[in-house]
Design brief:
The chain has one helix and ten strands. It has about 140 residues and is mainly beta. β9 and β10 form a beta hairpin. The protein starts with 11 loop residues before the first helix and ends with a strand.
């Protein structure tokens, strides 16, 4: 976890922790994640909803996959593919209760994967419920 860790007990230091959460300084990190080997959206490894910084360190083959949580406005995921194989990233399958429809990444069909090359990075952000937008690193 990033940000200011509180000391034991209540006090002013706790208000700094809360301020850090409010300002986004206490982002959740998932430093190791294994992509699912079968490469399907239904079985893809789900990225934890609270994780903003994600390192996928195990991708055995080009079809191995992860999936984003439901697209809720304000969500941000920075994903590093720290492996030697291409990573497939899917939008969450199923109906997003906030929209009543399925989510998309860059307007791709819900079941279509977004590819991150070996060693690549991508930023996913959600300005409106149901829609992930992605920026791929060079």
């Amino acid at each position: 976890m990033l940000g200011i860790q509180p000391d034991a007990g209540l006090g002013l230091v706790d208000s700094e922790r809360v301020k850090g959460i409010e300002e986004g300084a206490n982002a959740s990190v998932k430093s190791t994640l294994t992509a699912q080997a079968d490469g399907t959206q239904a079985n893809a490894t789900t990225i934890p909803p609270a994780a903003q910084l994600v390192r996928v360190n195990t991708v055995a083959g080009a079809a191995d996959s992860v999936k984003l949580p439901f697209a809720i406005a304000g969500a941000v995921k920075l994903i590093a593919n720290d492996s030697a194989a291409q990573l497939a990233v899917f939008a969450r399958n199923g109906t997003n209760r906030a929209t009543g429809t399925t989510d998309t990444i860059n307007a791709l069909a819900n079941g279509t994967a977004f590819a991150i090359a070996a060693g690549g990075r991508a930023a996913f952000f959600c300005p409106v419920n149901g829609k992930w937008f992605a920026i791929l690193s060079a």
